[in-house]
Amino acid sequence: MSKVFPSAREALDGLVFDGMKIAAGGFGLCGIPEELIEAIRVLKVKDLVIASNNAGVDDFGIGILLQTKQVKKMISSYVGENAEFMRQYLSGELELEFNPQGTLAERMRAGGAGIPGFYTKTGVGTVIAEGKEHKDFKGKTYILEEAFVADLAIVKAWKGDPEGNLVYRKTARNFNPNVATCGKTCIAEVEEIVPEGSLDPDHIHTPGIFVNRLILGEHEKRIENRTLTR
Amino acid sequence: MWDRNEMAARAAKEIKDGMYVNLGIGIPTLVSNFIPKNLNVTLQSENGMLGMGPFPKESEVDPDLINAGKQTITELDKTSYFSSADSFAMIRGGHIDMAILGAMEVSDSGDLANWMIPGKLVKGMGGAMDLVAGVKRVIVIMDHTNKKGESKLLKECTLPLTGKGVVDSLITNYGMFEVVKGGIKIVEIAEGSSFEEIRAATLGNLIV
Questions:
Q1: What domains does chain B contain, in order, with CATH numbers?
Q2: Residue B17: CA atoms inside 13 Å, Cβ hemisphere, count?
Q3: Of A186, B76, B107, B111, which has the fewest CB atoms closer than 10 Å, so is most exposed?
Q4: What ipTM did this prediction achieve?
Q5: Contact B85 A105 (CB under 8 A)
Q6: CB A218: neighbour CB atoms within 10 A?
Q7: Are A86 and B122 within 8 A, CB to CB?
Q8: Phi, psi for residue B72 in degrees, rounded to 5
Q9: Chain B CB within 8 Å of residue A52 CB
């Protein structure tokens, strides 16, 4: 059985349903699974719960699923770049669960590692801690955060081989390795599918066991904040 | 009174050789301009990078290489990249020596509010709650007063907190302060400012 699928649309076959939980890699618009997000838009599945650090911008990234009102709830740490998001949230159309960025990454890591929850200092004494179990260890107070397991994980990598081994590039790695582990199924889209044996086994970031399906994508790689040296 | 650059320069004086430092968005970003070249200081960007270089030239722009403010950036010879979970293991695990970040309000017991104005501004905390909970020393840079001239240094924060009792030091246009038992201690008064001026512009408990 080959993990390589001809398109994002075909890779999503049989995996999407209304109300599903999706974990998506990326930080801002960097390292986002562009083609898979677009294919999810075309498939019109709705009431999605999406865990992703950000919600894209109005017309790119997760933002395109907000435009079509396919998202019921976002789990994110920062959504400041998206006016449509703000509008839907303030009007009550969209649910939002803010997670501190490290808590979100660790919830995904834990979810992928079979750890149901963990204690952290992050958020103690803030609204994030409300309603959560508090516990002291060595005189310091921590709160219990629960792991996140998604029905589907979608990630973007630089190179992948037919086994699903992935290598990311620079800061486009970000949440992708953690997202890849926390899905019941994971689809990766890559810039290049290389022959088996051509990736150095010592340099693989995500071992193929975490990746079920693989597609070759074309990526716009839009830059959110082009800043140049003076 | 210190301007933005003078506040950033004052913060840079706190950075010592060998430190790993995380700089927040806004004035804290300017701090990197004032770190002496002879010090070996490594900047962490919480989206997954250690050893952050300067902004790129047009020809060096790489969409796969950004900082936590989503600005294009460059790498250095010592740079390493890693996942978000590894990045926050550095932050939450106490491996980062110093975080310098901005604030909307600070209380005299070191509470920090910098992520949300209810009903108005819904942006999110990003990595700020993790940074203030996990980094060894937290320095806040902010204007001492808001646009209406009201103190941002309070007895109690009125906005939702980013962290409780997490601020170690504070740099404002009036000077440098340290959070100690019982209040905010004045460490240094900016040239052209005075104790009376600081007193008048501060609602939190000041200790001389």
A1: 4-46+94-207 (3.40.1080.10)
A2: 3
A3: B76
A4: 0.97
A5: yes
A6: 9
A7: yes
A8: -65, 145
A9: no
